Amino acid sequence: MKTTNKLLSLSKENNYFLLKTEGSNIRLYFLTEDIFRLRADFSGEFKEASYILTKTAWEDQLDHVLGDERERIAGIEVNIDEQDDQYILSTSTMRIEIKKDVFSLIVTDTDGHKIHADLSGRNIQQDHLGRVYHYTELNNDNFYGFGESTGALNKRYHRISLSPKDAIGHNHSPQTTNLYKHIPFYVKVNGDTGYASGLFYHNTFESEFFMGCERSGYWKEYNYFKADGGDIDYFFINGPSLKEVIDRYTYLTGRPILTPKYSLGYIASTMYYAELDQDCDEGHFSFLEQGLDEGIPTSAFQLASGYTAAADRRRFVFTWNHKRFPDPKRFFETLNDKGCPAFPNTKPGILLDHPLYQDFAAVNGFIMDAEGKQPYVDNWWGGLGSFVDFTNPKAREIWKKHAKEQLIDHGALMLWNDNCEYEINDRMAQCDFDGIGGVAADLKAIQPTVMAKAVQEVLRESRPSVRPFVLSRSGSAGIQRYAQTWAGDNKSRWEDIDYGFQCILGMGMSGAGNHGVDIGGFTREKPEQELLMRWAQAGIFYPRFCVNSASTDNTVTELWMYNDVTPQIRRALQIRLSLIPYIYTMFHKHSQTGEPVLRPLMFDFQSDPNTYDIADQAMFGDSILVAPIMKKGMTERHIYLPAGCDWYDWYTHERYAGGQWITIAVDEETIPMYLKEGGLVTWTRDIQNPMKDHTKVLHLSLAPQTSQHIYYDDDGLTNDYKQGRYYQLDINVEYDSVCEIAVTPEGDYPTAIEHFEWQVINVEKGAYWCSLDNEVIPQFMNRKQFEKAEFGWLYENSDSTVRIKYPNNNQPRLLKVSFEKFDLVGCGED
């Protein structure tokens, strides 16, 4: 056992501090005022070769691979104060106390309040098998993130395993188990102070977190991280807010992609339609037509791997079964013309008798055996196969070549990376590692991320003007900058709604918020009627709304499969489609800051400890609280409304004080939504197809309070927004007896918005007057006349809303709504 219990020396080197202990040298880098890196390398080599980091303050052997994705920063200078028993390193926001005799780190804020502490005497270790450990104190902390896992949202007293597997039919049990991703990052919120911080372990070996679930009478309560190899190489990320932690984590590992609009509607998929004996293309077209007939339009289609099936049904990626799909180019073009593009399934395993096997073998493009002499062979779908080594640049180029020729040139706008967990049983199998050389134990978790990078590259190279979009089932830290993800092959069970919801929230707290689960479940028998209805009603708030199935009873999960609940599902989807302006604005913010679209209540209400363990409610963006019905046979729903603001029922505008539990009655139509005081939601009735339809009338629902908001739009398909071709409204609300709303447009995108219609909520009184740019707006008393008018205002008593409409002139506007006291007959009381 190698330990780091005694600090022998501390010295300042070029851009880091070198700490020497009895067991390992340690480097300490300060990247920003709020991010530092500590790396204990027991080998003493300190090799830098990362596919993950997009911000570095050191030379990295893979700088040329990441290219302009990576930025070299200078780091910062820090103050150092040596005392008898410790060194104190200080930035403008935190202090790091480095103990000498019993080496450990304690991080405090500038007032001396403890944020983080190593477990003194049991800090960083390496055992005789090369496994590394980092022990930290467990205080009154709550833990979130850890990538994709089952179990409770708050992982306090949980064990989390990061060992990606092809986890079909995984058990969404209360106990935390591994799924498909490897993201060793968590955020914690202290229950006493409400202070948030994060730890990201820059290690791709299989790992485990023990968050207070192990006890010893000889030590304080503790957590620890364990990895099967590599270094203890972590980045401490300061808060104090959760928003700041997530922002800084995605600053470090890459900002999420801006998803195209076609991914925001109903994404359909099933293995069944690609497994028909013939004419599967017509089956897909028929599916789209039936959806339109049912009032349930489809915006994209995941093309299952049956299109690559040989006569014996085994999958041969980059080949076509022309009996099932006689004309692939026509298939893609037809779907693109309908505004419903398809993204075809690809898999990185190549069967031994695959016609392209030798293409990869000729350049050592597979992961090799432990001796590095032959391609590594293991179980694969349909037989024995080898695995494409995406850390080999030659293999990447071959993959890109076939993806372009067989898929993209036929018309595919995006690709789906499936079964990419790299279940390789020989830890010592060899990977190219871009010429460095490495073993599968270290590199298998990174393979799907580099695969997604390669696919994004070939999409961009093939269509430079079109926004690349990739769907990936697996991935490491950093996957968010290449792909949307989902939680794989779940089951059609009631408990999977609940734990799937928590899984999405956890991924959002891991910097990978563009995530979802298969609505209705992927495997097992078809979902029962109520289950499908409730899952669809919950799923409209998922970042990825997708129904995908491979049912075991020869059925296909379709949103209209049960006549009795099709109206309720149709209504739910229409709510999502109406909110596309709001959702797309949230996704744009997600791409800028990492802020998740669907997030736990405590993300926005960190000062309210009552939110820390609530996992069946969430904030959908910064303005809407959602509380889906996710239990069978519910007749009432208990909902917590966080403290700090009032809340308004989305449908009736009934007002509730925050900081309380309420109980509402539940029927088949119930989809609980609450608008936050100070919140603004943009919506429209104009969108059925997000790729083809545009907002002409933008509705803006406001629960007035002094606040700032942004509405964002662009063409939703191309990269033109990067050159200023976007449309943004900066909205500043000042609320007093007169509510003043300043709206300032920016950007060069020619918006389709012709009219604005505001809904300004006031449950206490109607408006006295309204003005636009200091000109009085005409008032209507007759609702029918108001509906026909292009300019005017009306107080809607049924939902306590001042409705104001006016044309869009693409100029800055100042809207005023007076709620001043007005006594019509002059005898009112003061």
TrEMBL record:
It comes from the Bacteria. One of its GO terms (molecular function) is carbohydrate binding. The keyword Hydrolase applies. Residues 26-209 form the Glycoside hydrolase family 31 N-terminal domain. Residues 257-586 form the Glycoside hydrolase family 31 TIM barrel domain. The keyword Ribosomal protein does not apply. Its EC number is 3.2.1.177. Signal peptide: none annotated. Coiled coil: none annotated. It is an enzyme of class 3 (hydrolase). Residues 594-679 form the Glycosyl hydrolase family 31 C-terminal domain. Keywords: Glycosidase, Hydrolase. GO terms for biological process: carbohydrate metabolic process. Residues 703-757 form the DUF5110 domain. Pfam families: DUF5110, Gal_mutarotas_2, Glyco_hydro_31_2nd, Glyco_hydro_31_3rd. InterPro entries: DUF5110 (IPR033403), Gal_mutarotase_sf_dom (IPR011013), GH (IPR017853), Glyco_hydro_31_C (IPR048395), Glyco_hydro_31_N_dom (IPR025887), Glyco_hydro_31_TIM (IPR000322), Glyco_hydro_b (IPR013780). Belongs to the glycosyl hydrolase 31 family. This is Alpha-xylosidase. The gene is yicI_1.
